């Protein structure tokens, strides 16, 4: 349970960081003309919080030894992307006029982040294995 809570907190932190970085980019892209009325900014922050929880909470599947890793990844990404897409549609981050390009970029970004974690943890496992083998000899 402690690992899942840590994953949720890390995921929320990542969601907020990306939200801020993308917000700065969008502010420059719109030349400082972004307007937040009717609590739009607050709604987007709450949406980022839900996205963090949506990607962090499903990490519990990685504690199971019975499921193969591709199924774990499918469950994790399936749940995370479901929450992400619900928030993205609700917030208007994906609109009808540019649906497919926006969907591709946003979902692609999620997979790039996931791939980064996979590569990081694979490297960590390799380093630990090498350290254990050196200790044996």
Strand content: under 5%
Dominant shape: elongated
The whole-number mean of residue pLDDT values reads: 91
**Helix fraction?**
over 70%
End-to-end separation? 36 Å
Helix-strand makeup class? mainly alpha
> Can you tell me the residue ranges where pLDDT is under 50 for at least 5 consecutive residues?
none
Q: How many strands in all? A: 0
Please count the helical segments.
4
Question: H/E series, N to C?
Answer: HHHH
The Rg value, from CA coordinates, equals: 18 Å
Q: Main β-sheet: number of strands, strand sense, barrel status?
A: none
Write the layout of secondary structure elements.
Layout: H1 2-29, H2 40-56, H3 69-91, H4 99-136
Structure commentary:
It is a single chain. With 137 residues, this protein is mainly alpha-helical. The mean pLDDT is 91. The protein has helices at residues 2-29, 40-56, 69-91, 99-136.
Tags for this model:
4 helices; 137 residues; mainly alpha
Q: In short, what is this structure?
A:
The chain is mainly α.
């Amino acid at each position: 349970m402690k690992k899942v809570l840590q994953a949720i907190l890390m995921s929320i932190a990542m969601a907020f960081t990306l939200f801020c970085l993308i917000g700065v980019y969008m502010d420059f892209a719109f030349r400082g003309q972004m307007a937040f009325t009717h609590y739009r900014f607050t709604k987007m922050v709450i949406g980022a919080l839900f996205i963090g929880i949506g990607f962090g909470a499903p990490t519990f599947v990685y504690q199971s030894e019975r499921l193969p890793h591709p199924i774990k990844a499918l469950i994790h990404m399936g749940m995370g992307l479901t929450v992400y897409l619900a928030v993205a549609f609700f917030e208007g981050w994906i609109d009808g006029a540019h649906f497919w390009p926006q969907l591709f970029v946003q979902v692609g970004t999620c997979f790039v982040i996931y791939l980064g974690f996979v590569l990081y943890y694979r490297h960590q496992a390799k380093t630990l294995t090498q350290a254990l083998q050196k200790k044996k000899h």
